[in-house]
Design goal:
The chain has 5 helices and 5 strands. The chain is of the alpha/beta class. It has a 5-stranded parallel sheet with strand order 2-1-4-3-5.
């Protein structure tokens, strides 16, 4: 299975790229994490945020490989504990199809894009800096993978 992280933004700070690559490299062949970046729209004082969000969302949807389960990262989505994410990852792997996680730009995902999602996932009620989201998602997916495979990385299980 491949997990396609489809994200707006193609000029991230070096620490973001480095942290993402660190976690992506830890995944085994049978569950690979792959980043697909789409360009963010140029923002000015006179830009219409809803129009920019719609364009970015359209580009994200175009970048999703066919037959993927589509999951939108959205503040109003379902929050998952790490253990719940591990269970969800296990379900996705059992479906036998790839997963695309869509991460919008600074203005999020457009409503029309969200309507096309199979699921919506909220990382937290907190607001995170846009570049940080891809690092958090990569780390949490690796943590979920480590739980599924009884690796020592995750030590947060309650006894």
């Amino acid at each position: 299975m491949k997990i396609h992280m489809v994200a707006v933004g193609n000029r991230m700070p070096p620490w973001v790229d480095s942290a993402y690559r660190e976690y992506a490299a830890r995944f085994p062949r049978q569950c690979r994490l792959q980043l697909v970046e789409v360009a963010s729209q140029k923002r000015t004082k006179s830009s219409d945020p809803s129009r920019l969000r719609a364009r970015e969302s359209s580009a994200l949807l175009s970048a999703v490989p066919k037959h993927c389960r589509r999951v939108g990262l959205e503040r109003s989505g379902r929050e998952l504990s790490t253990e719940q994410l591990a269970h969800r990852l296990q379900q996705w792997m059992g479906e036998g199809r790839d997963v695309a996680l869509l991460i919008g730009g600074p203005d999020g995902l457009a409503p029309a894009c969200l309507e096309q999602m199979d699921d919506k996932w909220s990382l937290s009620a907190l607001t995170f800096a846009h570049p940080l989201v891809r690092v958090i998602v990569a780390e949490q997916l690796y943590r979920a993978w480590s739980i599924i495979n009884n690796l020592p990385y995750h030590r947060g299980h309650a006894n």
